């Protein structure tokens, strides 16, 4: 029972400076370890699940360079990255039926690129890049390979 007669006692200091320091260093180390762990897990996931390294042929690699050299990404998005003037091409291989008919999809994609621009009034146009047969085939290799990247269900529909 406290009353007016009780002598005044200073409050007990529970949260000491050393406790604060321990929380600071302990917390920093703990979250740094978590961060390193998550980074390693992401890397592991990319290398083992997301990247299909076994089928990354010379054609796929050359095709990526053709893609970059001609700045296709200035109009197109690929797996969501890029410009929104022209269709997403991360899944264009699937849209062209590549899963059921790889030869047909290859021929279709090459014919499409060779037929541009269409000049159809009111339709966005894709320029003619005058690519060689080798470059066109390499591009298709790259687009085919890209379509197999595990995007965890993105885009949600084929038109993506
Ligand atoms: C100046 C903008 C522009 C650039 C650069 C461009 N494209 Fe296109 N591309 C388009 C447009 C616009 C369309 C859609 C045209 C249409 O539907 O008539 C298209 C369509 C396509 C399609 C068919 C997509 C589908 O879903 O049917 C493919 C494949 C394609 N482009 C590949 C490429 C590649 C490969 C490059 C680089 C070598 C490239 N594009 C560069 C504008 C561009």
From TrEMBL:
SUPFAM superfamilies tied to this protein: Cytochrome c
One Gene Ontology term of the molecular function aspect: metal ion binding
Entry keyword set: Heme, Iron, Membrane, Metal-binding, Transmembrane, Transmembrane helix
Entries under InterPro entries matching the protein: Cyt_c-like_dom, Cyt_c-like_dom_sf
PROSITE patterns for this protein: CYTC (PS51007)
Domain of life: Bacteria
Taxonomic classification: Bacteria, Pseudomonadati, Pseudomonadota, Alphaproteobacteria, Hyphomicrobiales
Protein name (Swiss-Prot/TrEMBL): Nitric oxide reductase, NorC subunit apoprotein
Domain Cytochrome c: 58-147
Membrane spanning residue stretches: 23-44
Protein's UniProt keywords contain Secreted: no
